[in-house]
Specification:
Helix 3 packs parallel to helix 5 and helix 5 runs parallel beside helix 6. The protein has 364 residues and is an alpha/beta fold. The protein folds into two domains: 222 residues, Rossmann fold (3-Layer(aba) Sandwich), CATH 3.40.50; 70 residues, Alpha-Beta Plaits, CATH 3.30.70.100. The chain is built from twelve helices and 14 strands. The chain is elongated and about 80 Å long. The strands form three sheets. Strands 6-7-8-3-9-10 form a six-stranded mixed β-sheet, sandwiched between helices. Strands 2-1-4-5 form a four-stranded antiparallel β-sheet, with helices on one face. It has a four-stranded antiparallel β-sheet with strand order 12-13-11-14. The site of adenosine-5'-diphosphate (ADP) has 11 residues, from strand 2 and helix 1.
Length: 364
């Protein structure tokens, strides 16, 4: 079991460093690091159903922390509790040191939140949307214009500042919402599935934007996602959530290293004999074999080149035809399979996908 080296005592994610009631300082990696977010044994029940089940983790200041899991895992429920939007059934969450149940206003002042649904006013321009938020958050009028100018640059929307929001593409609207969430200079930024529904190019643009914003501002980011590539590329640490429980937590390389085998061989065979899976398991280096149907096998190995050579030799000797063969490094998908026994991509196919609302106008 992977452990959260920063988690509180008795946590579902592992070894103690800060007990409940601590001041938020201290982690195994950096003893002086401040915990921007501290979640301790948090539970959310809807009637008899437990949506979040005794989850504990800490997020260090200026860290990008990912909650990764399939739809329905409890990621949004966790964010809603941390951002004071729904009551907590049991446990605690501290945001910038403020207990969200005892001092929700102080917690709210420290955070920016980008919910999954797009909520900017479609009939207003980009600049008007940002201005309204700046006023709502009491950004002094003298500072407002400079803050908005800087944010428009950061999200690469300066030249569209006077465009009506309804004419923007999904990716541009998402970037506007990211700017809007930062207009009051929060210290901690929560983003719930920020790229769901976006095309691959817009998704990468949003990742680059978040990385760039992070390099310009002192900001802690908590992001939920069901995209493994997104979590892998963006996050310093990832918590894998499944059925409301935290099942693994560490850096992406450490999570991958925790899975036995460092390479994955995916191969498709014609006329494989009945004992083919057993024979693959006996090849040198192999730690596990999954038969994925349609004569596709997924072989985890600690010695990719040796196993591949032996696999090809075994196929030749047995008269088995190799239809396709690929060797890759371990992915977060393998990590998910290792800890949950299921493939994240299969879970997502079953789930209902969020669809970006159509845009009534034209992209400027
Ligand atoms: P995720 O964000 O990982 O997709 P959610 O946090 O939205 O998951 O949901 C976790 C579980 O809690 C799901 O099974 C969902 O159906 C359930 N759930 C969420 N909100 C409510 C609610 N208001 N009432 C009852 N069940 C809910």
């Amino acid at each position: 079991m992977i452990t959260d080296r920063n988690a509180p005592s008795g946590s579902s994610a592992g070894a103690p460093t800060n007990g409940p009631g601590s001041n938020g300082h201290g982690s195994a990696g950096d003893p002086n690091a401040f915990n921007a977010i501290q979640v301790e044994h948090i539970v959310k029940k809807y009637g008899d159903f437990t949506a979040v089940d005794d989850v504990s983790f800490n997020v260090k200041e200026e860290e990008i922390f990912g909650l990764l899991g399939p739809n329905g895992a409890g990621k949004s429920t966790l964010i809603r509790m941390m951002t004071t939007l729904i009551p907590i059934t049991a446990g605690t969450a501290r945001i910038a040191g403020h207990d969200v149940q005892k001092d929700p206003d102080a917690a709210r002042r420290a955070i920016g939140v980008i919910p999954q649904a797009l909520t900017s006013d479609l009939d207003l321009t980009i600049e008007e949307n940002l201005n309204i938020y700046a006023k709502l958050y009491d950004v002094p009028s003298k500072k407002r214009k400079a803050a908005i100018d800087e944010l428009l640059e950061l999200v690469d929307l300066t030249k569209w500042r006077s465009a009506q929001t309804k004419t923007l593409s999904g990716g541009m609207r998402r970037r506007l919402e990211i700017a809007r969430g930062l207009v009051h200079s929060p210290r901690i930024f929560f983003l719930d599935e920020p790229t769901t529904g976006l095309d691959p190019v817009s998704r990468v643009a949003v990742w680059e934007m978040l990385t760039s914003i992070k390099s310009h501002r002192k900001l802690t980011i908590l992001i939920t996602t069901h995209y493994m590539d997104e979590a892998d590329r963006l996050c310093d640490r990832i918590a894998i959530v499944d059925h409301g429980k935290l099942v693994a937590l560490d850096t992406p390389p450490a999570l991958k290293a925790s899975v036995p085998g460092s390479n994955v061989i995916e191969a498709q065979f014609d006329n494989a004999p009945a004992d083919w899976e057993d024979r693959l398991k006996k090849l040198n280096g192999v730690t596990s074999v999954q038969h994925e149907g349609a004569s596709m096998y997924r072989v985890l190995t600690g010695d990719g080149s040796r196993t591949t050579t032996e696999l090809v030799e075994a196929a030749v000797h047995s008269g088995v035809k190799i239809r396709s063969l690929s060797v890759q490094n371990t992915t977060l998908d393998d990590v998910f399979v290792h800890y949950t026994g299921r493939q994240l991509r299969d879970e997502l196919v079953k789930a209902h996908a969020f669809v970006m609302p159509p845009r009534p106008g034209l992209q400027p």
